[in-house]
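Work Package 3 (structural annotation) set out to generate three-dimensional models for the target panel prioritized at the project kickoff. During this period the team completed the workflow that converts sequence records into discrete structure tokens, so that structures can be stored uniformly alongside our sequence database. As a representative example, we reproduce one entry of 327 residues exactly as it appears in the project archive.
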Amino acid sequence: MKAIVFGAGGFIGHHLVNRLKKEGYRVTGVDLKHPPFSPSEADEFILADLRQEKNVKEILSTGADELYQLAADMGGAGYIFTGENDANVMHNSALINLNTVYHCIKFNIKKVFFSSSACVYPAYNQADPDNPVCSEDSAYPAQPDSEYGWEKLFSERLYLSFQRNYGLNVRIARFHNIFGPECEWQGGREKAPAALCRKVALARNGEEIEVWGSGAQTRSFLYIDECIEGVRRMMLSNFTGPLNIGSEEMVTINQLAQMIIQISGKNLRIVNMPGPVGVMGRKSDNRLISEVLGWKPSQSLLQGVELTYRWVEGQVAYSQHNSTKRI
């Protein structure tokens, strides 16, 4: 079996490539960059800009049993919710998906996975931090809280349209806050778990860490291994989707920060400050995935956060050591 992974240099794509290799696939990874923390296990890794149609055409012309389209212009709250990157987020991701669907049909790619996002869900259903509504059928009437969410919703409809009109065999999943080792942990595109792990790792005992917003906003977070398991199970099923892949264990951002502090063993204070936060409440609704796949994520948040904190802690120590050496 041959698989192509678009976005193979990114966090989820890199882990997916490794999983596919373990299952015996021949894998071609594609991205603008190589994975930053460990070498890709892909049989072939192509550095290419998927916004350029000629690149997508050339890559897909070789054929594949499965294509995983994870490439997108994205990041955490500091990147998505400031409004400063809206045009690039919509333009870049839309171009990638428009190029992808067209050439999937042209070159008869047998099965395509598209990674959508929980950001497609309406802001009006996520105003209550204690009772967010994120069932798959609640995406309409549409009112995502960001242009990133609007582009993902458009692209869901794009893939489904090509399924209806041209027979493209599609699987669509909506990811809910995926985290784990080898995620972005600095630079502005990192998400809340990694950002908080970095802040805690950098802080000295007795100091404080900053948390954007009131800290009462809620989220559920899914460890990377369970995300990849959900993707593979969905691809092996006959269910098109969209389908939530996320955890039902919801915490406030302050609770997440306190969990990381406890793992670190440090005595730190949380200081809430103004900053981009997105919706007030969000967690995965896993009723449908349980029904159609007979499976749903079950790992505790604490287990995943501890593994992630230890990895980020190591990255921080390595970075500081190299900085000291340069001085």
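DSSP finds ten helices and 13 strands in the chain.
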